[in-house]
Amino acid sequence: MLVAVTDHAVERYLQRVRGALDARTEIAARVSRAVDAGRTEPGERGAILVRDQERPDLVYVCMHDRPRGELIVVTLWEEGDDPEVPKRFTDVLRRR
Predict the structure, then answer these.
(1) CATH superfamily of the 2-95 domain
(2) What is the pLDDT of residues 52-89, one digit of tens each?
(3) pTM above the 0.85 mark?
(4) Sequence spans of domains, the chain
């Protein structure tokens, strides 16, 4: 399956994962491996949640573009008590 990645997902990834040279390619590869390993679950409004294999706290929010046969990574978030980007920063962005 082809994996496409939005600019928003790249930004969110770079905030959380340091040292990525080509974030878009890295995200696509990580999502592809996780999907192959069956690390998916249904999300809201038809989304597919994909949990990273290397960092299980990273959850990619994807949409399936059936006509093109692509899985599009729309955004991602971190779960857990010790995220790379604390919730207080993401909450401020939500208020704007």
Answers:
(1) RelE-like (3.30.2310.20)
(2) 999 989 999 999 999 999 999 999 988 866 545 544 44
(3) no
(4) 2-95
